[in-house]
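Could you show me some protein's one-letter sequence and the numbers that encode its backbone in two labelled lines?

___
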Amino acid sequence: MSAADQLDILEIELKKAASLGGSLALVVVPERHAERVLGLKRDLDTVASFMDYSVVAMFGATAEDAAAHFIALPKGVAVYPGDAADLKGLLYLALERLRCLENVPGVRQLWDNLSVAGAREKKLRPEDRFISASFYQFYLFICMQPSEMHSLLDGLDRFERDWIIDLLPEAILNQGAAGVRQAPAEAARILVDWEYSRRFAEKVDLGSATLRRFRNTETLFTLPSIANQIMELTADPYASALELAQVIRSDPALTTKILKIVNSAFYGFHRQVDSIENAVMILGNDEVANLAFTVAIARILEKVPAAQGRELWAHSLMVALLSQWLGQRLGLEDVESLYTAGLLHDLGKLVLWQAGLQPTLEAASLTSLAGEEQVIGFSHAEMGGYIAERWNLPEKVVDSLMHHHLPAKALNREQASLLNLADLLAHNRSLDNLSHASSVYLCSSGLNLDDDEVRLTCARLREKVELMLEI
């Protein structure tokens, strides 16, 4: 296909955006990244070749959307109608933005070093999605070099910085911003001297060895059958309350525990609820399904030491309830998947216990995440995502688990950001000590939370957590 034909394809997309009154982001990426572009593009995006570049037309996308979607790839972005009204103007502007960025000392090295393709010239295996999802040792290294970090970030478009700054504590960002800048070339040299590619390859090898070692531990990687049935029912919009009750009644121990919870002081019913059918009628399908799924999942904790298991489960319950509460406040549709993701967000810590490690039960930090990665090749977050995929849980749950400490890299950024915020609120019981990602999400989401409301909500939900711990 000729260059003119390729441009005609893009022209059609631009005319569509213009006729519908929508936006169109044009993303220009060097041709050497063509394979990764095809793997990252959305189904509805159009890709064309133009000179030495891949050009992606993203209908309905903003500059922020485009930059986040092709994260850590060198690119220039221009958006119709804000930047230009015709294809020639958009292409020229996007190419100029790419060339300007590539000519900034250090930026080209940054992109090349942070590219998975640059670290490993081979196709990724399915499990490499989890092994290669993040590199906390590198993020920690950046945090220990605040002036160098900001010298490199200075050369990036503001939309290119999300994948780094969302993880960094505000204190690190402020420290580096106020410090003396290194020359960009010197900052790039420090990055190269750290030997990113070699260290990343070693991390991938270690992660692969970990998965081989644990893949045969089927008791760990098997979702309790009753939990699986409940998940399938909640995902079916045509499932009836009777069907849910029948599934729960098939497990007498589960039935007994749910009725104990329903008849507790927390719910405050004046009359005894004596059957699962009545519980479903009174509380609704979603509430009873969440209770049943929670009780079923709790059985997995029998595989870890009792004291740590109780503390982990208390925190997981609190994160699940806070995720549900935040989702309801925002009027989100699929609140149940938020509850599930919150309940399972630290699932990967079970593997660390199985490996004889002692994962922190405090709020995760770059230091703790990098420490986990040094021992098993990835953190508990990626391990949790791997287990969830093995359980055939919905992709948005897998994605949220894998990225709840790095929401900028998630496909569903809102859900991962909400989970990140719920995790920190559960630890802190206040709006203090939030990560950059959760601070940004709190401001942009319209939640309008204040400390008093957070403390009261945490205290109320803690009552339910304590009740479920005793059942």
